[in-house]
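Give me the fold.
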Amino acid sequence: MTTPIADFVKNYATRDISRFHMPGHKGKAILGCESLDITEIDGADVLYSADGIIDESENNASALFGTKHSFYSTEGSSLCIKAMLALINKRTPRGKRTTVLAARNVHKAFIYACALLDIDAEWLYPKEFSHLCECTIAPKELERALATADRLPDAVYLTSPDYLGNIADVKGLSEVCKRYSLPLLVDNAHGAYLGFCEPSIHPIALGAHMCCDSAHKTFPVLTGGAHLHIAHSFDADKDDVRSALALFASTSPSYLILQSLDLCNSYLSDGYRNKLAACIARLDKIKSALAERGICAKVSEPLKLVLTRDSCGYGGDELAKILRDHGIEPEFCDRDAIVLMATPSLEERDFERLERALSMLKTREPVSTDLPAPEIATRALSIRDAIFSPSEKINAENAASRICASPTVACPPAVPVVMSGEIITERTIELMLYYGIDKIDVIK
């Protein structure tokens, strides 16, 4: 597969050119990558009005993912989320407020997008609650929410996979959305690789209209590289999508990130499915060995190993210490769970190191968490009004009956306990303290 962006920049870097253009390093090495770090010079195309080498590279990505078009972002899925909501907002009739029905475990980027676009969010809550990152919604629950709504939302929004590796029933949920003529948007930041499983379980293949992939999370792409995928079923003009991205994006996109996205196309087209299958099989072998010893990993997406107190008896923080003592750094841990992410870029020695570390674990009885289930929130202000109102930071334990301003949450996992504009309750405070959130921004 062609790599037009990387080829152009590599050729430019080898030419004897006086760089009277940005960036200021002029191609001279400090980190070592400067010669490949360019700007929108002649022939380099322009990301958010692409009609040259960037458009050609995106076409390659579109063919790989089976989309109407796959757009590049050098500012992660956060930019793509804002663009998806902007496209929905643009479809809303003038004079009507845009409302999105979303599963409650959204990334804070969704909240910020709602604030910037003045969009209202209605929430889908899980029937059973076991972790802040999880919000499993069955198709029949979505059907019930839509059938009983005072008015239909303008879109439905899911996070799948979530941070703990749960994959939603995107196919079933998309069929419900189709019956109500609603677009389905999916934050697929952790699941870019799912389209290369056999069979594909990528949201676009399962019926989503738009989704974002953080390519850098599971592909050999520099941090910040992401895709905004538009399905053939979604009526969106290419220029409109580029405009939606440009609305929130820097006018100086990283050509280093663009090159990594471009080169990733070649990587994916050259035996990646086999490499992915081998990596999944290797991780499954580790999971099976643990299960034989009575240590059960949580059911999750193929490239994650997730251990929780209620599945194996070990807390995430405790497991993280054991792994770090063996030279292993996890993706995420808290008192209840630990998340390890694998990709084909890992070597056999990495898996062997993990096996040695996990061999230290002794069998324990699962421990149910004493996690307080959240209650249905009461909204006092719109998300936009709350985030842009004067605010103050106070101790969480003193926040009862106050209105949340900006969401207070660590990243990862960046899932808010309480959303902007909602009234903070004693139950909310209990949940925040459970997750170690001791300060919160509230409306003055």
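The radius of gyration is 23 Å.
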